From TrEMBL:
CDD domains: Ubl_Urm1. The keyword Magnesium does not apply. This is Ubiquitin-related modifier 1 homolog. Keywords: Cytoplasm, Isopeptide bond, tRNA processing, Ubl conjugation pathway. Belongs to the URM1 family. It comes from Stentor coeruleus. One of its GO terms (cellular component) is cytosol. The modification 1-thioglycine is found at G94. C-terminal thiocarboxylation occurs in 2 steps, it is first acyl-adenylated (-COAMP) via the hesA/moeB/thiF part of the MOCS3/UBA4 homolog, then thiocarboxylated (-COSH) via the rhodanese domain of the MOCS3/UBA4 homolog. One of its GO terms (biological process) is tRNA wobble uridine modification. Acts as a sulfur carrier required for 2-thiolation of mcm(5)S(2)U at tRNA wobble positions of cytosolic tRNA(Lys), tRNA(Glu) and tRNA(Gln). Serves as sulfur donor in tRNA 2-thiolation reaction by being thiocarboxylated (-COSH) at its C-terminus by the MOCS3/UBA4 homolog. The sulfur is then transferred to tRNA to form 2-thiolation of mcm(5)S(2)U. Also acts as a ubiquitin-like protein (UBL) that is covalently conjugated via an isopeptide bond to lysine residues of target proteins.
C-alpha cells in the first residue's frame, strides 16, 4: 500500500462531497487506474463531469507534484507514495 494525496478544484470538489483533498492508501496503480478508482469509490454525483467512457474528461488539468501529467506520461504514470495529484476543472458554465 502507498499513501497519496488527491486535490480537487475548479468545481470538481462538489462532485466529491465538497472535499477539496483526499488522503488515500491504495495499491500501486497508474493514473488511469486512479481516475477510475476515484470514480468508483469517492465520486458522489455526476460521473460524466469527471470521466468519459475511456478516461478523464477533457478540460480537467492534472498535476502530479505540481508537474503537468502531459510531461510524465499522462495516464500511464505509475503513482508513487506521497504523490500529490491535483485535478483542476477548466470547464465553467456561462
Amino acid at each position: 500500500m502507498i499513501q497519496v494525496f488527491v486535490d480537487f478544484s475548479g468545481g470538481l470538489e462538489d462532485l466529491f462531497g465538497r472535499q477539496k483533498e483526499l488522503q488515500l492508501n491504495i495499491e500501486e496503480m497508474s493514473l488511469r487506474q486512479l481516475v477510475f478508482h476515484l470514480k468508483d469509490k469517492h465520486l458522489q454525483m455526476k460521473p460524466e463531469l469527471f470521466v468519459t467512457g475511456d478516461g478523464l474528461r477533457p478540460g480537467i488539468i492534472v498535476l502530479v507534484n505540481d508537474t503537468d501529467w502531459e510531461l510524465i506520461g499522462k495516464d500511464l504514470y505509475q503513482v508513487q507514495g506521497q504523490d500529490r495529484i491535483s485535478f483542476i476543472s477548466t470547464l465553467h458554465g456561462g
